[in-house]
Amino acid sequence: MITTVTLNPAIDRTVVVEKFAFGEVNRVQSVREDMGGKGINVARILKSLGSQAKATGFIGHSNIGHVRSLLEQDGLDTDLIEIDAATRTNTKLIETDSRSTTDINEAGFSVDAAAISAIEAKIDALSAQSQFIVFSGSLPKGLPTDFYRQLISRVQPPCQSVLDADGILLLEGLKAAPTLIKPNIHELESALGTQLETEAAIVAACRQLIEKFGIVYVLVSMGGDGSILVSQDQALFAEPLKVDVRGTVGAGDSMLAGFVHCLSQNLGLEQALSWATACGALAVSKVGTESFSRQDVERMAAQVVLRPTR
Ligand SMILES: Nc1ncnc2c1ncn2[C@@H]1O[C@H](COP(=O)(O)OP(=O)(O)OP(=O)(O)O)[C@@H](O)[C@H]1O
Ligand SMILES: [Mg+2]
User: Which of 47, 53, 169, 219 could form a disulfide bond with 165, CB atoms 3.0-4.6 angstroms apart?
Assistant: First the structure.
């Protein structure tokens, strides 16, 4: 089983307009709501790839009925801790004319000491049943910036941990030596406080993190420029697949799901990177967090071009 952790979940409301006019009345082409939050997105994709996935984390009690109905659409297996507040709604405004996405994210609920103890106990229990625990996304108010570090430290082998977080959460989380991190290039640059202009510089930066913190794999995603996977003794560049980009929502989450799915099945790094690339490309070719099938991934993964880099 693969567990995903979403501490600051959100209902994703995707609003599509042809051309947005600021300060005027805008007519909506379509609107849809999906249960979001990075870990929940990862769990949804893992499930469609055939992995057994469980989503844990916090959820708001006041609008739980609506949240449950969204979760049921996906048939997700969940083990969530209820907080005495509402789950926030994040709005993604997609303009079809410019193909741009504008995010309007609410801050969401805050958590207290009881909720912290509850998630700690949950991680202890799920670590004993999972091959991987994937921690992704921002933290709600009330949690310290080293909270991912604290939770990752609770994960006991043979269970392995994965971290997809930004800024101080990533910097602190690294200290607990997660098996895999998936920064995008901007997150990696800001974590290191330096610009990475060449492939060689990116690989060297990843190796630095591997040496210093005991990370096993660093997967650096670069949007439409592809991705680079670095381990202690291997570095691979994955060319991006050419797709018609309809929305960039969830590309990173999909990529991570594809990669972890393959790792959990011991399919090797090349297949993992190919599937990750296929999942990222499929995500951007869909609107919002619309799902895709395992057959789509297999078909696209066969077209991915990898090459060694250093
Ligand atoms: N325009 C694109 N064309 C083809 N593939 C893409 C495109 N954008 C993203 N991808 C694929 O998805 C992967 C992840 O994308 P990206 O680097 O944007 O993730 P991210 O910044 O972590 O996204 P997220 O907002 O979901 O956290 C890329 O490495 C690539 O394989
Ligand atoms: Mg990301």
Answer: 169
